[in-house]
Amino acid sequence: MAGSGKKGGSVPGEHQVETGNVLMEHSSAELVKGRQVVMRQATAHSVEADEIEIRQGVAVRIQANELEMTQGGALIISCDSAELEASKSGVVLAGGNVKMDQSGAKVVLARGDVTMDQSGVMITAGRTVKADRCRSCLVLAGKVEGNLNTKFGPRESLLFGAAAGLVAGFSYALARILFSGSDD
């Protein structure tokens, strides 16, 4: 998306912006919809577009086919593909690949590959996870490549699953005992 010659004007504190191409600089909006959205030092509650580029911007919710975010932040990202550089996110849900460079997220769930360089994610799931000097508490992947430190290895995952199953089973049995006599 960079250098694609998009045209548009700045949006000075609008509540809702809907157009083909949107360029937001030093501004904010509640809802931004467009085919291509570029945000530079801007904030938005919700951003929806085919292509979104964020430079030093923040959004609560992002819905995109393609996302490029540099020094930005988002709470929830739903996209086909995402590239995050020096950015933070709560949840990234991707239908395709996710690339993270010096970025962090609580949860990354991708149907494609997750590629991370000097990044941290609490829960990572993808077809293949490729990492270089990264950390993740829990990784669910068909294949893991590179230098990735995890809190849950195979042994810890087995113990966690067994303990969670016991707690769930005990809670279910206790609920049945406590609430089975309430119909009388």
Number of strands: 11
Instruction: Give helix % range.
Output: 10-25%
The secondary structure category is mainly beta
The best one-word shape is: globular
The oligomeric status of these chains comes to: single chain
Q: Total helix count?
A: 1
Strand content: over 45%
Kindly, what is the distance between the CA atoms of the first and last residues, rounded to a whole number of angstroms? 66 Å
Q: Which regions are unreliable across 5 or more consecutive residues at pLDDT < 50? A: 1-11
Mean pLDDT: 88
User: How many domains?
Assistant: 2
In N-to-C order, the SSE pattern is: EEEEEEEEEEEH
From the alpha-carbon coordinates, what is the Rg to the nearest angstrom? 21 Å
How does the major sheet shape up?
6 strands, parallel, barrel
Kindly report the spatial arrangement of strands forming the biggest sheet: 6-7-9-11-10-8
SSE layout and pairings?
Blueprint: E1 14-18, E2 21-25, E3 28-40, E4 43-55, E5 58-70, E6 73-85, E7 88-94, E8 98-101, E9 104-110, E10 114-117, E11 120-150, H1 154-180
Parallel strand pairs: 1-3, 2-3, 3-4, 4-5, 5-6, 6-7, 6-8, 7-9, 8-10, 9-11, 10-11
